[in-house]
Amino acid sequence: MSTVRIGVIGAGNMGADHANTLHRHVSGAVVTMVADIDEERAAAVAGALTDARATGDPYAVISDPEVDAVVIASHDSTHADLSVAAVRAEKPMLCEKPLAPTLDECVRVVRAERQAGAGLISLGFMRRFDPAYVELKEALAAGVCGAPLLLRCVSRGVSSAPGATDELSITGSAIHEFDIVPWLLDSPITEVSWHAPRSTTVVTGLQDPQLILLRTADGALTTVEVFLNAGYGYDIRCEVAGERGALALTNPARLVTDSARARSLAHPADWRPRFADAYRLELQAWIDAVAMGSPSPLATAHDGLVAGAVADAVIASMKSEGRTVAVQVPEV
């Protein structure tokens, strides 16, 4: 397959960014179709491309004979049904995280893929392709800081999306940490607990921020801070303390004041500038695999199921006043 014809489902920020990256920065791919429930929004994204068509029907993208592979970047609640439809159509797909918002839906998707007999689903845990995280993983594997003991992960945003809930903070944001921590440590998350300080008053009824404690099978402990309404910018941090030293993605040796009034130029308004390279590298790796008919190097549907099981345990802890909950990955 010389050129992979791509259909993009979802024309919001994520879908539009994927369409633009595929069009401008990924070789061997052409976007031929864009779908969104808001057909005008789909048309606006398609109009910025070369000969791409727009539709309001996402399933028309999956069934279209001029679409070889599909990017699913629509609302989280649509991921399971669209992934199952793409699998049944035997089309490779890159589904944005999460695989699905609930563990039961994750199981349904993984079963459908296995019944199809091929690894058609690649999952958009793009931090695996971020140069900084890749460098951190290589340093850990080389034993630069000795055996890891403590990890500190921070995920802050400017403001939450409309309709954000306590659970969506976990399945839509913290889910990245549930994938990247075991990937970095090469050790699965075995138990979790959920905690929270008093909530910000920015959004009524939303517990924000949240603090999650993860224990991996190697005995390391990880704290995950999720703060959707931090106000000052999009801010991702990761630090590892080991037996012989420490590693960090950011390590300022001065006082830094991050606030809405004194917004640092180092912090963009959303995730796209910070992870632009990761998305580009991820999409290129996926397109190359589809074109060659080789296994995808991206996260798998089973990886999404495992992250979903961690999220399910965290939500159970949230609903039981922070008790420690063991992670149970369903047999599929």
Question: What ranges have pLDDT less than 50 throughout 5 or more consecutive residues?
Answer: none
Estimated radius of gyration: 20 Å
Give me the strand/helix succession: EHEHEHEHEHEHEHEEEEEHHEHE
- Determine the structural class based on helices, strands and strand pairing: alpha/beta
Total of DSSP H or I helical runs spanning 4+ residues: 10
Number of strands: 14
Strand order, sheet with most strands: 3-2-1-4-5-6-13
Gross geometry: globular
Describe the protein.
This protein has helices at residues 13-25, 39-47, 58-63, 79-88, 103-116, 131-141, 166-185, 271-274, 276-292, 301-318, and strands spanning 4-9, 29-35, 53-55, 69-72, 93-96, 121-124, 148-156, 189-195, 210-216, 221-227, 235-242, 245-248, 299-300, 325-326. The strands form two sheets. A seven-stranded mixed sheet has the order 3-2-1-4-5-6-13, sandwiched between helices. It has a seven-stranded mixed sheet with strand order 12-11-7-10-9-8-14. The radius of gyration is 20 Å and the shape is globular. Strand 1 (4-9), helix 1 (13-25) and strand 2 (29-35) form a beta-alpha-beta unit. The longest helix is centred in the middle third of the chain and has 20 residues, at 166-185. With 332 residues, the chain is of the alpha/beta class. Helix 1 (13-25) packs across helix 9 and helix 5 (103-116) runs antiparallel to helix 10. The two termini are 32 Å apart.
